[in-house]
Amino acid sequence: MIHTAAIMARGLGTRMRRRDAAARVDLAQAMAAESGVKGMIPIGRPFLEYIISALADAGLSHVVLVLGPEHDAVREHFTVVARPTRIRVSFALQAEPRGTANAVMAAAHAIDHDSFLVLNADNYYPIDALRMLAAEERAATIAFDRDVLVRDGNIDATRLQAFAVLTVSADGQLLGIVEKPGDTFDLASPAARWVGMNCWAVTADLVDACRRVERSTRGEFELPEAVAMALREGVYIRAIRMAAPVLDLSSRSDIARVAERLATISPVL
């Protein structure tokens, strides 16, 4: 079983920083959104607390937060203000926001074993998804059912253009991945049924691919492109199908709805 998870919390929060007069946010939420540190937006408690609590519920014993040098407030929160007792928290430095593959490399340098989970800091994943990934012995990801994401979560159909489309075989093998398909892909088609939400069990093979992947057209080193390269090189990656929602905290318009969905959950660190 995998015991460590890396949370990619280095992003600049560009979408979250954009002001939205229609968004229902209080003063504390607006101030946190202005900083761009999505994981610290208060949803009752800072959003990262919910993610870390879910990882502890799933049986993980260690969380590595991948942060930038400017994120002292996050470090202080989890070492002084709300120091976890159920799960150990440590930190990895990603000096510059160079993409998710680069974040995986930063995490790998701070983790002393080959396999670990990787997930976003702005998504709340089902505990069962985290538990199943942690039980994997090989590289794996969760393939979320597109229709359930739209019907039961806070992700509308147009937002799927910003996520990854997964091609999954009948026996649960990941065959292909298209990151941020935009309008080049018919997202209502059966071929686009399975969606990747950057929730991975990473092995040494994928870390090596992250080390070698070239910059994307967006100028970053991206984990999905490293995964695509690993697939071309014959690395086996399991895709665990799941019909469950993921909460996405990408912009200010998401805050109120995510808060409503998490209102009955009290994170225990």
Structure description:
There is one protein chain. The chain is 33% helix and 23% strand. The chain has 269 residues and is of the alpha/beta class. It has one domain (4-261): Spore Coat Polysaccharide Biosynthesis Protein SpsA, Chain A (Alpha-Beta Complex), CATH 3.90.550. The strands form three sheets. Strands 1, 4, 5, 6, 8, 9, 10, 11 and 12 form a nine-stranded mixed beta sheet that branches. It has a two-stranded antiparallel ribbon with strand order 2-3. A two-stranded antiparallel sheet has the order 7-13. Helix 4 links the parallel strand 4 and strand 5. The longest helix is centred in the first third of the chain and has 11 residues, at 47-57.
* Silhouette: globular
Q: Outline the biggest β-sheet.
A: 9 strands, mixed
Order of secondary-structure elements? EHHEEHEHEHEEHEHEEEHHEEH
Distance between the termini: 21 Å
CATH fold title: Spore Coat Polysaccharide Biosynthesis Protein SpsA, Chain A
The name of the CATH architecture is Alpha-Beta Complex
The total beta strand count reads: 13
Mean model confidence by pLDDT: 92
CATH superfamily: Spore Coat Polysaccharide Biosynthesis Protein SpsA, Chain A
Oligomer: single chain
Find the structural class using helix and strand composition.
Answer: alpha/beta
| CATH class assignment | Alpha Beta
Domain count: the total is 1
If helices are DSSP runs of H or I spanning 4 or more residues, what is the number of helices? Answer: 10
Gyration radius, to the nearest Å? Answer: 17 Å
DSSP strand content: 15-25%
Uncertain spans = none
Helicity level = 25-40%
